[in-house]
Amino acid sequence: MTYIEADVKDVLLCFPHQPDSCPRVHRFSVLKFMMYAFMLVTIFMTVFGNLLVIITISHFKQLHSPTNLIILSLALVDCMMGCLVMPFTMVRWVEGCWFLGDFLCQIHSSLDMTISIASILHLCLVSVDRYVAICEPLQYRMKVTNSKIAVCLATIWLFSLSFGFGIVLSKVNALGLDTVVTPCVGYCALTFNKEWSVIGSLLNFFIPGTIMSCLYLKIFCVARKQAKVMSERTAVVKPCETSHSSEQRERKAAKTLGIVMGFFLLCWLPFFMANLIDPFLNFMTPVDVFDALIWLAYFNSMCNPLIYGFFYPRFQRAFKIIISRYVLRLSDANNLIL
């Protein structure tokens, strides 16, 4: 037996009885255990955190506002990410194989793209809502109503579904890649040609991200001006205390907006930069690097409840009531006030 034959026999395949099967990834057992443990914790926190937001907003009528309707829909999107997408992506990354067939691969890829786009567009809609609320407060109730928000959310869902499933099922993203990418049995990954990598990245990240950045920058400037006006009006009465409170408000506004944009860019920018550049580099990005960037993007779905839900005092009180009354079964939970 030659050395070449020995090497071929030593290669683990996703489907050993199929000659055109993809090779299985070799990983140490300790590494596989650590990867599964980390990703399972991420999935659990994503599902639990977003479910808590959904239950809280649905349960308390005081939270039924246009802003919270967006947060509710965002939590639903991120919860779907944790339930329908992340578990299957986890197995595919760790094992290096897709075991569920080509049809379910297409469904998974479509859902992955659809939910990712919907999550980003929801965050963009949140920034628009906050902009109107802070920069045009007198017109907010007239401009932003539950019915208008419902139309915007329906449009986001329709666009995300059309784009995600349309791209995958039509396979326009893979036109001209037959000689570059040769998928084997057990392979399940979205590969974009140069045209669609640019179109997809612009429509689904760079344009919404630019809108968010501009709006939050404007919000910060307006909030800073409002804080200065308030401090000037009351400076005659308590000059020292007013100056200190004004500085606190400015720092809090900067901190909040910095956290919002920081997490968004940290999670999504690396993936979309790689997705945009990789086709022009002849797909030289290692598979593990791409999968790591995908999970960094998924991490945003886990952080969204922390940023857009748990961050606000009214939500915190609502969470305490929900957990105390229905999880811990505490009798004094009925005395808590939202």
Automatic annotation (TrEMBL):
GO molecular function: trace-amine receptor activity
Ranges where the G-protein coupled receptors family 1 profile domain occurs: 49-308
Pfam families to which the protein is assigned, alphabetical: 7tm_1
Membrane topology category: Multi-pass membrane protein
The keyword Methyltransferase appears for this protein: no
Keyword Transmembrane helix set for record: yes
Gene3D superfamilies reported for this sequence: Rhodopsin 7-helix transmembrane proteins
InterPro entries: GPCR_Rhodpsn, GPCR_Rhodpsn_7TM, TAAR, TAAR_fam
Subcellular location per the Swiss-Prot or TrEMBL entry: Cell membrane
Chief location category: membrane
A GO cellular component annotation in the UniProt record: plasma membrane
Listed transmembrane segments: 33-57, 69-90, 110-128, 149-169, 202-223, 253-272, 292-311
Highest rank taxon of the organism: Eukaryota
Keywords: Cell membrane, Disulfide bond, G-protein coupled receptor, Glycoprotein, Membrane, Receptor, Transducer, Transmembrane, Transmembrane helix
PANTHER family per record: HISTAMINE RECEPTOR-RELATED G-PROTEIN COUPLED RECEPTOR (PTHR24249), TRACE AMINE-ASSOCIATED RECEPTOR 4 (PTHR24249:SF220)
Protein family membership: Belongs to the G-protein coupled receptor 1 family.
Official protein name in the record: G-protein coupled receptors family 1 profile domain-containing protein
